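Troubleshooting log. The previous run stalled partway through. Resubmitting the same three chains, unchanged.
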Amino acid sequence: MWIRFEVNGTKVELDVEPRVSLADCLRDTLRLTGTHLGCEHGVCGACTVIVDGAAVRACLMLAVQAHGEHIVTVEGLSNDDALSPLQASFRKHHALQCGFCTPGMITTAHALLTEEPDADAERVREVLSGNICRCTGYIPIIKAVLEARAHYAGEDAPP
Amino acid sequence: MKFPAFEYARPTSLDAALGLLKVHGGDAVLLAGGQSLMPLLAFRLAAPGLLVDLKDVPGLGAIGIDAEGVRLGAFVRWCEIDRNARLAAAHPLLVEAIGHVAHYQIRNRGTVGGSLAYADPAAEMPGIAVTCDGEIIVMGGAGERRVAAADFFLGALTTCLEPGEIITGLRLPAWPKDRRWAFLEFARRRGDFALAGTALYYDLDSEGRAVDAHIGVIGAADRPMRLAEAERAINGSAVDADSIAAAAEAASLEVDPMEDFHAPVAYRRALVQTLVARALTRAAG
Amino acid sequence: MKPGNLLIGAPMERVEDPRFLRGAARFVADVNLEGQAHAVIARSSIAHGHIRAIETGDALAIPGVRAVITAHDLGPEVPVIPLRLQPLAALEPFRQPMLAHGKVRFVGEPLAVIVADSPQIAEDALERIGVEIEPLPAIVDRAHAEAGETVLFEDHGSNVAIRWTAMRGDAERAFANADYVRRETFRIQRHAALFMEPRGLVAQWDATARKLTLWGAAKVVFANRRILAASMGLTEQQIEMIEVDVGGGFGSRGEFYPEDFLIPFAARLLNRPVKWIEDRREHLMTANHARETECEVEIAATADGRILGLRGRSWTDNGAYIRTNGSVAPRNVAQFMSGPYDIENIALSTIQLTTNKTPAGTYRGPGRFEGDFVRERLIDLMAKDLGIDRVEIRRRNLVRETQMPYPLATITPYESATELDSGDYRELLDRCLEDFGWAEKVKLDGQLVDGRYHGIAIGCFIEGGGAGPSENARITLETDGSISVYVGSASVGQGIETIMAQIAGDALGAPFDRIRVRHGSTGHVADGGGSYHSRSTVMGGSAIVLAADQLRDNIRKVAARALGCEPAEVTLDADTAKGPSDESLALSELSEESIEAEATFSSDKYTYAYGSLAAHVAVDAKTGHVEVIEVVSIKDVGRIINPATLHGQAVGAIVQGLGGSLLEHLVYDGDGQLLTGTLADYMVPSAECFPNIRSTVVELKPSPNNPLGAKGGGEGEIIPVGGVIANAVAAALADSGAEPFELPLSPPRIWALITEAQSHR
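Second attempt completed without errors. Output:
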């Protein structure tokens, strides 16, 4: 099936089999391998991408469902020069070790803070409870996301 | 765990969707949020020939609030229920219960209709539908029919939906402002399916006694159910420590928990008793 | 030369991080080769039986399917996975064939390899494979395993693979004369490492050059290459194993699995690159399981609480085969059960059983988590029985600094003796008590507050690390003045590129950003030990220190020639080499060729990091839910390279320990079917479960066993968690009399303990 969608600001047009997941389409066809597959049954969150502003599990979505949508992957949250404030906060707080869950954490946190820049620790934990990490024990991740809030609320936002 | 091969259609009208179901029969399945369907396909527990995506079918995504109550279109997603400011006042028990569904990413996709059709015995939406005298609106080849939630769920992952039918919405009766209610579930981790849960409400007569109690449980049988004995123990009484204890005990005896490796039957019964007691205590304030 | 402390000890941000944060890392699933085919593994869905037939015709008929490989295709003798650690002849009968033939012995055992043009087609073909297995009774518990009516290995004749014995002193006499003896049976459940990146490999065979290249290597790359070469009839030089980014290991990834042979074999057979990535359901039933142990242990003590001895038997459920390191945990249960305590008389044995379940291997703190659960529970029980404060009783029994090196029990067979190297165990116990606020919190102990019972507990632990025999490093001063460090240590996510650069930087006196670390792959060093048993910093780091010394000598030699002086007269700083009369040369202009040095660090002495961990729990007696209110830990590693990354590992280890204590459980039914086959059923901690953990790492007592003075520190904090949580729950429920002896402490189990305890009153 021919589908057209936008990913990280670039329009793409592809012929995909209906059964190909959005995750596999991004990874294999578009070679955007930052989105990871940790379980392929909708539990671990490593495959999280942002579809029209909403964080979704790309392993539970078909590529054909992305027709007409705006998709942002972890690659779209970076630029070549510097790490984004959210990424820099993760690095500062050592919120990653093996790095496999990290893209999903970044996209989920970005989606959350874009909508709710004043999310408190409880809300951040609640939202990230859908992303499994086996290395960090989560505490530095929560700290990193909380510190990054300031950048989503504007310069004069309270910490 | 790649999906098996299937065709995909995205009809732009309900009639077209019904038409596809009629032609393909049991070989077609409906796709709404996909949060329950896709894992099934990933595990190859189902191998439909055709997925019918309801995304472009108009009229399924509305949340309606009026004097008659609340109407949720089948394609209403959990996140939309979260964000609807009027709904929290119009049906607080619904909103509270839905707050426990799964996780952030799933809530951005999962739908009312999908959950009702999937009929997981521990799911919140079927639980609310049954507890709150919900009515499920179904469209089929012969037109629209309405099914009382109490009659809709037949067993674990089984509903009375006929082949070729599509859930279009759920109606919940109007919610009086002074109603006492509570929702309480127990899960191993936030977002997991509940080991058991209860949704309940009652009104108070002029004497401060409970009337019209509705005590529903999820995860304690092969489908959500209302507990008539527990309701009987509360109706006509003041909701106090004694009546709460009686209702909770009745509840534990009335449920028919399935045994699985997560929890033995005796535990689930005790859990139901605890949850009903705590929920009633909370409702009573 | 002992490296200085400019970089070492600094909480530097990791050089690895940017690519992970941008989604620009390269995990094996991200490796794609032109023309690659995809493999899936057909696996047994029956736990035990005779293979009558494997029908491949229907699968081969699907367009796009390129091959279906069964045991027959592997040659006259099906290769087996060798024993990497403890290669005892007694364990050889239990080695796993690369593909099942004759019999299947666990659900998930590989039966065939399907290679197709896409993973989708390969999975479609999986459904068309016809397997005929004549089932045999499945052995899934200790009783049936020991009864031996059905055995997994008919030639061997029993399901007891081997018995390990840890002995010290005279336990017989100690128990006979003890004032106090208490004996209990403990059970630790089957659970696993569950790293987030599924296993995978990409293999490419060059038929002209007769060379194999493999991406996705991990953990013990050189050892795996040796194994692979032997099983494929190649020399090691014909195989290059490339370690890309690795998504966690925890002791489980990187051991040699059947796929590590099957995928390269398929690539060579088809003369086409083959890619294989496991899925999560497959992972749960094929990556090493761990921890399932039953222990009948007794403790002997004087009336004033001095522990005299530990005696007893443990049984580990090792699953269907003994793979590369399957005997490590059973050995450790016995040898390290005494932990940091001065226990002179020990007679502990571990019986390793074969059952029709997934094979077991090492998982963070293997055998130690289990042993500590037993010992710490016995100590708290003893304290209660003797009426002695449980903190005080620990203080009385901890090994003293003056007793070190302190010999632990000797383990046989594969006789191995080890000693605790250095440490002030009491000091850390005291610091932990203070940091935790024990004096205040103890007031809550056993109290019912807001409907929940509160309990606290503390435990002491040691962490063995720095396993030898050796590690290699090579350092090159490039012609542009930059420094390349090659080390045999493998990355499993622990920040090797950063840590090793810190060590190299200080050893060379060079700035951090001039150093680039390459690790793991066989192209980097002649041989490598790898990353396991918390050895990378100790072994790899020490090798770097030695190589750095050598490199400085080599640089001085080159500089001396150019400056016309003796090497001993040359002084080096970060940028220059100076002669005796202050004439200097820039290092980046020293030579037209790079200058290199290679070194090996060898040691046969383990290091022992140590510490204490305390926990506060609140138990809902009605639901059985245990909330972990707070965990506080402290550990001494002798020398900290990067406190931030080390702290990160500590917190991660504690959370894994909490998962193992409360949530995680690989459950089998009576037919040997794994019931927990998804991440919805196998529950690991999520971000909401354990939000209050504070962990401190200190450098108090260096290890005398290596030039860094470091002790391996990647595992430790997981070790005490089971015992401490169980003790805290027991303390909370003291009034009810409920005593937990079995993990996990799930709500139904807690509820049942309370209900049963109350019914006995």
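Takeaways: Chain B has two domains: 63-173, 183-284. The radius of gyration of chain B is 19 Å.
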